[in-house]
Design goal:
9 helices, 321 residues, Leucine Aminopeptidase, subunit E, domain 1
Length: 321
């Protein structure tokens, strides 16, 4: 039985375009909106050397030829989703044996390492992202940050030069994609600032549903010019985390949109529920990510009628076309 994986398709990381050489968005003068920037100075300055380490790639992570790839899975490393299926299929039965005999389990927030076996990647760093519940927003946010931080630390310990980093948060676990992207990008940015020689290349490997999100948010944390850096002072959230990108506001609760059609109502999601109990993604509020709901929140926390938000939404709509 085939899952559509082409074993002959191998993508060498050296062929991917570096973030610093990608074209910047059309720049907008946000001062015309009559509002001050959220940040007086840029918390993430323009740094060409860091940008040359970053790639944003929409593709199949199982085909990427790097020192290590990151595999987001469940506690028993048996998650069934398109990305995990491709990794297991291409790695072959030896990976399943490694999991059964050596790894056995991986707790939420932790990492485990296996050989890549049939993959072009030499190693696989497995990790388990959090299940998301608005009631336990802080716990989920801290756990997701820990996942990314632990992955980067393990890759550094293993002296991996090139990494394919998949999106660890998952809508199957009810994590809002935009929230997860902010945490991922600021954690990676802070890590590279502290350890500039840790990696030669770090590839954010995304699918079509996440590509637009990362394309919008990545310039905030890795601006490609001083002008883009300045623009980010309006767009970045107020909460940009601590020195490692960790959350700083433990009592902050996520704001739920007032529009009833986007509300969860009285529904409560158990953060410890099994994957089989997850909501139908097509009916979930987060499935409308590219609609009107999260366009307001993708770049931060401004109110709905805020002039800067209106400009951002128009830019995103233009980009979407």
């Amino acid at each position: 039985m085939s899952n559509g994986t082409d074993f002959n398709n191998i993508v060498d990381v050296s062929c991917l375009q570096r973030w610093g050489s990608t074209p910047a968005w059309r720049l907008t003068d946000y001062s015309i909106a009559g509002q001050s920037p959220r940040h007086k100075e840029s918390p993430f300055p323009f740094d060409p050397k860091l940008n040359d380490k970053i790639c944003l790639w929409e593709g199949d992570i199982s085909s990427l030829s790097v020192d290590g790839i990151v595999h987001s899975t469940n506690e028993t490393l048996s998650d069934q989703n398109p990305i995990s299926d491709k990794i297991h299929w291409r790695a072959g039965p030896d990976l399943r044996e490694d999991i059964r005999l050596e790894i056995k389990e991986c707790r939420t927030g932790e990492v485990r390492v296996s050989q890549g076996h049939g993959l072009p990647s030499r190693l696989i760093i497995h990790t388990v992202g959090p299940k998301y519940n608005t009631k336990y927003h802080t716990a989920a946010e801290n756990t997701l940050h820990g996942c990314y931080r632990n992955v980067l630390q393990k890759a550094q310990e293993l002296r991996l030069s090139t990494i394919g980093l998949s999106v660890i948060n998952s809508v199957r676990r009810n994590y809002p994609p935009n929230e997860g992207a902010h945490i991922a990008l600021r954690t990676v940015r802070r890590f590279l600032e502290k350890y500039p020689n840790a990696f030669d290349t770090l590839v954010f490997v995304v699918d079509s549903s996440d590509f637009g999100i990362y394309e919008v948010i990545l310039p905030l944390y890795f601006p490609r010019s001083e002008a883009e850096e300045n623009k980010a002072r309006w767009q970045l959230p107020t909460d940009i985390g601590g020195s490692d990108g960790e959350p700083l506001y433990p009592d902050r609760q996520i704001r739920i949109i007032d529009n009833p059609q986007h509300a969860f109502g009285n529904e409560e999601l158990n953060i410890f529920q099994t994957d089989d109990c997850c909501l139908n993604i097509g009916e979930h509020a987060f499935s409308q990510m590219q609609g009107d709901l999260d366009q307001q929140r993708l770049l931060g926390e401004r109110p709905c009628n805020d002039p800067v938000t209106d400009i951002l939404i128009k830019e995103m709509q233009h980009k979407g076309r």
